[in-house]
Write a structure and sequence with these properties.
Blueprint: H1 4-23, H2 27-36, H3 45-61, H4 70-92, H5 96-123, H6 127-145, H7 147-159, H8 167-186, H9 190-213, H10 226-234
Helix pairs in contact: 1-4, 1-8, 3-4, 3-5, 3-6, 6-9, 7-9, 7-10, 8-9
Length: 240
Amino acid sequence: MTNPETVRTIVGIIGNIISFFLFLSPLPTFFKIWREKSVQSFRPDPYIATVLNCAMWVLYGLPLVHPDSLLVVTINGTGFFIEMFYITIFFVYSDWPKRRKILVALLVEVVFMAVVILITLLGLHGTKSRSLFVGILCIVFNIMMYTSPLTIMKRVIKTKSVKFMPFYLSLTNFLNGIVWSIYALIKLDPFVLVPNSLGSLSGLVQLVLYATYYRTTKWDDDSTTQTEIELQSSSSAPQA
């Protein structure tokens, strides 16, 4: 009989691989920024938000907070550095007002994380209470990040076009949510399960919309904006 812990590890590794490629999905955006030597109309907000999201999940996965969550730490630790790389590129090719906003946002996140860490490690005792506190925060941040895919789906319905909602990105988001949901169910972890269940549902809705509006999409229409493309890339951030 297969050991559930072994199955969980295998599923978690698969989740790490899928999530890794999702973290890399904005690369075309930053290649364009590097090539043009300008951030143009792209915004740093989604990447700054994802940095905080990754930091929260790394904290959640630490043995002192939630034991046996190494694979949550590995992918979100990797994601943290990837997102910081994106922000660095954005910072280099931005003017001073945008740089100032980035610095202020990152400073706020550092202060917030410091407060959360102090409360978690010094104010709470035992992994159960720590997991509850940090886990709830992780779920709240993940739900807040769903504004991007919701904006995209609303746009698809309004325009009856899926041009700015790439099929493979939607499919990967769906699979990512499914894999991490399975991971959370093998050794029940509601704080990983809730956001990834919502993520898989979001991915499924995107796939249904794609199938619905594929035929009405005008593929030769160049009206897709940079913001729309950016939103789709930023919505791909893994949930665990």
